[in-house]
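Researcher: Structure prediction, please.
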Amino acid sequence: MVESKHKWKAWIYLSPAIVLLLIFTVWPIINTVRMSLLEGYNSMAAVGGATYDFGFGNFKQVLEYNYFLRCLGNTMLLCVLTVPISTILALLIAVCLNAIKPLQRLLQTIFFLPYVTNSIAIGLVFAAMFNMVGSAFGGENEIIITAGIINNVIEFFGGHAINWINSGSSYAANVVVMVVYIVWNALPFKILILLGGLQSINRQYYDAARVDGTSRRRVFTRITVPLLSPMLAYVVITGFIGGFKEYSSIVGIFGEDMGPAGAPGRLNTMVGFIYDSLSTQQGRASAAALILFGIIFVVTMINLYVSKKKTHY
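Model: Predicted structure follows.
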């Protein structure tokens, strides 16, 4: 009786959030599905009274478009490279941080700083670091050629400067830069999650292993990793979801061209393809967004299935 009497109050408290979700989440999803099924849909023409036939032409057009397939390949390549690397590095760093008692809080704060920093600003810093050449005017308008920090380090150890992101750079060099940036940018969140998991593990497991004289490597593989498996599954799944939505990192390094000078669009991703299509081909952009949603859904389901078999709760 008491519960039913106060239900209407709960709905009143929830109503602002429900209204916002309906307007800014549910309706955009419904509208995206609608536009994807209107062949050749353009919002400006629709306002002028144009009509469109229902069909799957937008999906067919997207899948047959070579540029979309390149964007899909770039996205999948970045996911496959960055998610395992960032997860392994985050696990190792979290284990080391958990073992360090002095200045642990300070070190945690330092490692977390990139997570609260604007990704575009970080991209500009990385672009300057990997820049092969720059120019500045010295005395009497003399042009001074400079190299970025990374190439300076390479030359210091006797290597040769590499054209990472400038005009004429190779696709492999561009991918290396993006992998380094995305991994570095993804580490803080994963370290925070894994460190919290490590600190929640019962110390009795480690005490028993120490009494038995178990090696550190075996403790790590037989105790730490299995007991951290729920957190590892979480960071892997969220890592793949974030990887498939990668866009701002490429803009931060290469700008709106999504590639080095002379090769625009070389590193464009699926989200970039959707943004590029929004201005003129809303139907195609909507179809591409639903295809991206389907891919993320399938990958997430596969990760959940695998983690269910390997996760220890």
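Model: The chain is about 70% helix and 5% strand.
Researcher: Thanks, that helps.
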